[in-house]
From TrEMBL:
Keyword Disulfide bond: no
Record-listed E.C. numbers: 1.1.1.219
Record has Oxidoreductase as a keyword: yes
Keyword annotations of the record: Oxidoreductase
Entry GO MF terms: dihydroflavanol 4-reductase activity
InterPro entries: Epimerase_deHydtase (IPR001509), NAD(P)-bd_dom_sf (IPR036291), NAD(P)_dehydrat-like (IPR050425)
The protein, known as: Dihydroflavonol-4-reductase
Entry superkingdom: Bacteria
N-terminal signal peptide: none
Domain NAD-dependent epimerase/dehydratase: 10-252
Alphabetical list of Gene3D superfamilies matching this protein: NAD(P)-binding Rossmann-like Domain
Amino acid sequence: MLQYPENKTALVTGATGYVAGWVVKRLLEEGFTVHAAVRDPQKIDKLRYLDALAEELPGSIKYFRGELTTPGSYAEAMDGCSVVFHTASPFAISVDDPQKDLVDPALLGTRNVLEQANQTPSVKRVVVTSSVAAIMGDNIDVKKTPDGKFTEEQWNTTSSLDYNPYLYSKTVAEKEAWKIAEAQSQWTLGTVNPSFVHGPAINPHAGGESMEFIRQNGDGTMKSGTLRLGMGVVDVRDVAEMHMRVAFHPGANGRYIALGHNTDFFEIAQVLRKAFGEGYPFPKRAVPKWLAWLVVPFVDKRMTRTMISRNVDVKWIGDNSKSQRDLGMTYRDLEDTLRDAFQQQVDAGELKPAA
């Protein structure tokens, strides 16, 4: 059973985000007053999906302006909150300036939010949305783990500003969070470390890497073939539930990998093809690693030959047993997650069957 505080007021940073939207929904279901921090509260079109949730659920929502890299930006939003969910962080694989576009928002944002928690007496619990990117850099890193699988005990030591900068940004941000948490005693910290998040979005027209990946499987982008690039996948609804349990379960302690399935790009394509048939140009074959090594870097600048060597045809093996043991987590079937995500894109008009 989750144990909610008497003061059921919670801050969610980046509240219009993919994971954040479902966290907001869970809080509203439990009757919380949600302080939703967003870049621009005046852009009401972006808020209408959250407003619709608040209209039909027991809780309520209030909007505040918050900017990751501005110290003190979350003071008003955090005032009176007993728990803080820090979900805001850029998720992008290809950027022009990794330091400015990825590392600074992730690191400075974490620092600003948690230092504001130090100055807000009502805050007793902070949950930071990290990533398995803070645990591993490449799939091949699993060979260096004690039991041949990624667990909460490991940290990413192979990513850098020049190689896999997104993964590096998540690593330095989470380390900063633990450093700040250990230097004070007012509030406690827990982190959620999701694998690749899929499933339906609160806003069906949202962008982002997860939605784009689903669309590319069905719009012909990958029709000539895809890679056996190992990855973990978890349903966004399960990630939101884990946030609630990390925040309010009495047994929660430390970091938690959110992982439903160890899979790869090609298996995902086959699951979608089985569910939706031949009406969409899903990939039908896996590109051999040697061919990917030769060709893919010219087609997709994000995929270097080093990255292909260390990840393609290398299984991603993660361990979610800590979340099951401590929090009682269960995870949705991969088929349900992918089918719901793809169907939502079809229903929203973002994907159309092939002619």
